[in-house]
Write a structure and sequence with these properties.
This protein has eight helices and no strands. It has 226 residues and is an all-alpha fold.
Length: 226
């Protein structure tokens, strides 16, 4: 199931586009529902393991779904909607314009039928939702399963735990990039991959003694504490 969900998270091409509406956004919330269900299960597991009581477990589960997943995706989508279209769209300030290659949707740069197009908030939210999936795999499932291994004081524990975070956030950036690279009217979308460089530098620096899971995991369960 995880493999099929990962393929779905990286495939941002709408299965069907209406002829009357010039949009790349497909109003299909099924992936949001599915990932919310996954967060429900992991929230219960984390709650039982860290809280041990029904009330705190319920609060933590709700935090996982509505804050960690939906609210964070909404914030990222809002920032992307406000910034990416202005900076990477046609006529973006400070960046030279260029013709895009044929995109995933089959159009040349500039939009359908040569018309200028605007970035849609629904599409931004779709991208943010799908990009969350590798974060869920690595930090909500992988970190939970490997917790007793990565919380140790040995260097191998530090390496495995910190690498888990590097993979999670790097894959988030990659899916984020793929989503916007699919739009033919955006230019220089490769700039969206630049955070990976920062993540790699921070990861390398953290290997000198900063165990990321030991510092971040307590914040992940903050909502369930009394």
């Amino acid at each position: 199931m995880s493999a099929s969900c990962l393929r779905s998270s990286t495939d941002l091409r709408p299965r069907e586009l209406t002829e009357t509406k010039n949009t790349y956004h497909l109003a299909d919330p099924s992936f949001t529902y599915l990932l919310s269900a996954f967060q429900l299960l992991t929230g219960i597991a984390w709650g039982i393991a860290t809280q041990g009581r029904a009330g705190p477990t319920l609060r933590l589960t709700l935090m996982f779904i509505f804050v960690h997943f939906l609210l964070s995706s909404l914030v990222i989508a809002t920032l992307a909607f406000l910034l990416i279209g202005r900076l990477l769209g046609p006529g973006g300030k400070g960046l030279p314009s260029r013709m895009r290659r044929r995109g995933l949707f089959g159009e040349e740069g500039g939009g359908r039928d040569g018309e200028a197009e605007d970035l849609e908030f629904g599409y931004c939210f779709d991208v943010a939702i799908r990009a969350f999936f590798p974060v869920w795999i690595c930090l909500y499932v992988g970190q939970f399963v490997l917790w007793f291994l990565i919380r140790g004081d040995h260097w191998i524990s530090l390496f495995l735990g910190n690498t888990l975070y590097l993979v999670a956030f790097s894959y988030y950036v990659i899916i984020f990039f793929l989503g916007y690279n699919a739009l033919p009217f955006l230019q220089h979308t490769e700039l969206l991959l630049s955070p990976i460089i920062l993540y790699a530098i921070l990861w390398a620096a953290s290997l000198f003694g900063f165990n990321i899971p030991k510092h971040i995991a307590p914040w992940m369960t903050l909502g369930g504490r009394e």
